[in-house]
Amino acid sequence: MNETVRFTLNGADAVFDGPAGTTLLDLLREEHGLMAAKPGCGIGRCGACLVLVDGAPANACLVMAFQLDGAAVVSAEGLDRLPVAAAIRAALVDENAFQCGYCAPGFTVALAALFTADRDADEAAIRAALEGNLCRCTGYHSILRGALAAAARLREAPSP
Amino acid sequence: MTAASGFSVLRPATLAEAVAAAAMPGAVPIGGATALQLDWAAGAARPGLLVDLTRCAALSGSGVEPDGGLRIGAAARLAALEHDPHAAAGAPLLLAALRSVAAPPIRTRATLGGNIAGRTGCLIPALLALDAALVLASAAGERTVPLAAWLAAPPAAGEIVVAVLLPKPSPRRVETARKIGRRAAFTPSVIGVAASLDIGPDGRIGAARLAVGGGPNRPRRLAESEALLVGCDVGAADWHALRGALLEEIDAADDGWRSRSYRRRVAAHAIVAGLGGAFPPHPGPLPAGGERGQGRALPVKGVRAEDRAIPLPLAGEGRVRALPEEVEVSHRSLGDRWRIRPDVQAKVEGGFRYLTEHRAPDMLIGRILRAGRPHARIRAIDVGAAEALPGVRAVVTAADVKGENAFGIVVQDQPALAADRVRFAGEPVAALAAVDAATAERALSLIRVDYEDLPVVTDPEAALAEDAPRVHEGGNLLTDLHFVRGDLAGAWEGCAHIVEATYLTPRQMHGFMETEGGFARPELDGGLSVFAGGQYALRDRMQLARILGLPEEKIRVVTSPTGGAFGGKDELTVQPALALLALKSGRPVRLQLDRAESVLSGWKRHPMTIRMRTGCDAAGRLVAQQVDVVADAGAYASLGPGVLETALEHACGPYGIPHVETRGRLVYTNNGLCGAFRGFGANQMTYAIECQIGRLAERAGLDPFEMRRRALRRPGTPGYLGQTVGPSERLDEMLAAAEASALWAAPRGLSGDGAMITGIGFAMNYQGTGLGSIPPDPGGGRLALAPDGKIEAAFGFDEMGQGALAMIQAVVAGALGCDRDDVRPIVGDTALTPESGSTTAARATFVAWKTARTAGPALAADLVAAAALRLGRDPADLAVAPGGIRDRRANDAAPLIGFAELAASLDPLPQASAAFEFPKTDYTRGNARFLFISGATLARVAIDRVTGMVRVTDIEQHAAAGPIVDPAGYLGQIEGGAVQGLGFTLTEDMRTSGGVFLEKNLDQYLMPSIADAPERMTTFALEDLDPGDPFGPRGVGELGIGAVTPAIAAAIADATGLWPATTPIAPEAVLDALEGAG
């Protein structure tokens, strides 16, 4: 059945009128043309479609339209809104954290959520926060180096 | 592209509304709904009505009750509970259990009530140990029931969980909770345990609550074991008796991944160890912690004392012992050479576009109908109803194939769309294109195929029998290779030690994150463009032309960029269906497989059974080896014959063995598809041969380095097949580097807390590059000045993530003298790029380097000549520089004329090309390689004494593959290969039953997560080449995965004495070894 839901997407008001079971992933990609969230498994097991829903990381393939009413959704394209995003992105780029890059936006979202909640996140916290993201190219260490470099940058930067 | 299901949703705000909604026919109450997609994928019926309980105030909040107990609303999100102060104070055990549930992004959505309501949740054991009660509500009113009693009774329809009550905890407790999974994190539960003991003021156990559950195991308290503890002094509990009682009382499920008895054992061990009791018994003395590994010979049955007494003629004497001049490959140590790859920023920001992400207003959505049965004759296909459905623009079957309905890189045995027979469950039978995803899905269900099932061929050995059912008319034996050297029969006589083992390797899935897909578009000239991730556009075009009956020049194939391939996109995947649909509909068509369809239909690594018998003399010198390989080809050949050939070419590793016999058979089955995969057979064989050498070293009483030093091939001698091999062999250096490694000297043995046993292992790595002496192996490329002043470097190979673009920039800039940013790489497009060969076999680096070296000077000369003319200077005074052409003698590097200005003045623009064969050897009786690269891998493992699970804490790789072209790319290949190899070794296998894959998606097929990645990974490179070596940098794409498995196996042997011969290595086998049951 169709549902009408109102939410914000990367800070802008958005309305969806369609089947209640439409996934946020399809909604982002096919309705809004926002392709950063990627379909990887469709069952919440790879993290390639990670977005922030009310500030918390969520698998867009598991969130359905009816659950969005009143929510604030931020996709990887909209991370600029978070004060920590620039440092995270720059560090990931400097470390050549990704190869094929299909998992990259999901990891970036997970790290943005982590560092927003805890600027002092250490390696153990970083690893724990990334348990829901699969990468098949890198063996994770380049991503970890990028995340640790981001943590160092954030420590040096004044808190907002 | 899940078509939305047509359910309605109610969002009750009050408990009364919630109860009323839940009582409606067909209503399904939900919390975070995080398991729904999983359940639906598993075939659960889609509900008509969902009742979203998360907005019901009565189910939210947490707080301390008047009796000191804790009440937590059922709609509490798990992630919120992790930070809930009441829960932290009143139920730390619950907090510990929470962190093992799924993964952080799931826990932000999933609710406590949802975890309980399904009765399989990972929190239930902890809640049982906390003596939780549930507040339930239904039309009949509210009731409070102990969780244990609720679990024991059948579910009551229409009843919802309102809250969880946890009694006030005893002030003094001993508690434990542990989930045992199949990998380190985000894992299905093998079994979960929890225990909580209330300790009285006298130190005696007042109450004991022990529980198991999780996943397929029935959650329950363990009353008899609890009774054993009550009244005991907690410091003097009889842990041995408790373990026995637990083993008696625990019942567990057997779902094929882990046995019932394993689950029982680990649950009992986890409870005992978690409560402070002893670890499982270990036969004999445990290896002491901190022992230096050098020369440590493990006690092995059957070693005669006199073997060790024989004086050892040191064949290793006089070989290179000086430590090689390696560099650590890292940003830190190679900072001045570290460059940022050109595509990484867009990838991080999310703006990078893959071929599956192109959208156009008139684009149709394609879908493929798969057989869904492993072996059957097709009696009839009826697409009438699908074609008649409004919105469907084309339906294609084998009848629409105008050319040959057969493809395959080596043998053309595979139909583009099945005509009269299907040979694997994922076989495409028809495809269609419709205006939207929902229409396409609906139309797919309207195609009727009448099948007659045929006997399913599942076991490659059984398939060799004369009377076995046939997968192909010509029989099941696809390839049979045999090689003999020396006199094997006589040679065994001269062996003092012989080891014999059968190594079994898994059907590994590539697991590229971007599943197969792309789009195809008919062109105005009657031609066709196909954009789909691949590894060799020109060959894809050739194969498509054959299928479509079109001339090759009418087809453009674009294969880059793609989101990972690892060999899995080397053969055609979805391109035939896309092409047929675009041609028939006359419209652009896009299609991307969802993961389940990718799993079902995609290429996999060939499972191999490798029987290996290897003998050495009393001095440890290798004398004889016999190898017999049976490999599962799956339903169609693809590159299988090449994979088997490569495996056999590496049968002796880097060792000289005078008497050898190898046989390999590749056998058709109905077990899906097998094809190219990083390592290409060599890594399976390296696992076997390196374990054999390790076992022999133990028998001969030699340390693993000395054993190898006596056996390594000598540089410049003929290769395994007798072929001439290329220069710059670095095996001795790799051996020396490994032996000197700090990791080898790291602590091993029992950990300080007694929970882990660590071991360190080592293996050599020796891998051929290029396709070999028999198949065509063309290389080449084109360099040109573009109108905008960029140096365009065009290559037919692909950017799949490995870093081809950065590598091209590096070699071209290096050859020309310009900056890397002056170079614009163009790859993987038959309209724009020349023949470079396939993006496989670690060959692209050499191809680009050789092209730059060949064509670079010619282009540079043209650029300099043109600039000289323009500037009125002597060309001899000018040189290519970053940004343009500079005065050769000026200190100032600023160009006299920029490339863009130069380009604007030139017509035509200069270009230079190269075309050559990848370096080949002289041997043509079989396929043989010429350029080999060397490496050594060390692994350190920590083995959990409770579970037998192996955690790889360290991997250190040494690689000798010539100069590093791009440090980040080099490092990425080695590290990425290592962890892909770790998955092959510990967790990954696509198991089959009756020709059907048991793993359907990434919830069951477990690739390593970040928690499985080693704590430390270090990579060293030896960059030097022999003087005059004309072959430059070799690719390292296959080196990283090459020796990880045997290094881990050797580390396990170091820790336990067990040489695991089956991968993925079963924790149960390791536990058996630890407990002396093996």
From TrEMBL, chain A:
GO molecular function (one): 2 iron, 2 sulfur cluster binding
Keyword NAD found: no
Keyword entries, A-Z: 2Fe-2S, Iron, Iron-sulfur, Metal-binding, Oxidoreductase
Superkingdom assignment: Bacteria
Stored InterPro entries: 2Fe-2S-bd, 2Fe-2S-bd_dom_sf, 2Fe-2S_ferredoxin-like_sf, 2Fe-2S_ferredoxin-type, 2Fe2S_fd_BS, Beta-grasp_dom_sf, Diverse_Oxidoreductases
The keyword Iron-sulfur is assigned to this record: yes
Enzyme Commission code: 1.2.7.4
Domain 2Fe-2S ferredoxin-type: 3-79
CDD domains in UniProt: fer2 (cd00207)
Pfam families: Fer2, Fer2_2
PANTHER family, A to Z: OXIDOREDUCTASE WITH IRON-SULFUR SUBUNIT, XANTHINE DEHYDROGENASE IRON-SULFUR-BINDING SUBUNIT XDHC-RELATED
UniProt-recorded name of the protein: Carbon-monoxide dehydrogenase small subunit
TrEMBL record, chain B:
GO MF term list: 2 iron, 2 sulfur cluster binding; FAD binding; iron ion binding; oxidoreductase activity
InterPro entries to which the protein is assigned, alphabetical: Ald_Oxase/Xan_DH_a/b, Ald_Oxase/Xan_DH_a/b_sf, Ald_Oxase/xanthine_DH-like, AldOxase/xan_DH_MoCoBD1, AldOxase/xan_DH_MoCoBD2, AldOxase/xan_DH_Mopterin-bd_sf, CO_DH_flav_C, CO_DH_flav_C_dom_sf
Keywords annotated in UniProt: 2Fe-2S, FAD, Flavoprotein, Iron, Iron-sulfur, Metal-binding
Domain FAD-binding PCMH-type positions: 2-171
CC cofactor: [2Fe-2S] cluster; Mo-molybdopterin
Pfam families: Ald_Xan_dh_C, CO_deh_flav_C, FAD_binding_5, MoCoBD_1, MoCoBD_2
Highest taxon listed in the record's lineage: Bacteria
PANTHER family: XANTHINE DEHYDROGENASE, XANTHINE DEHYDROGENASE SUBUNIT D-RELATED
Descriptive protein name: Xanthine dehydrogenase D subunit
Originating organism: Prosthecomicrobium pneumaticum
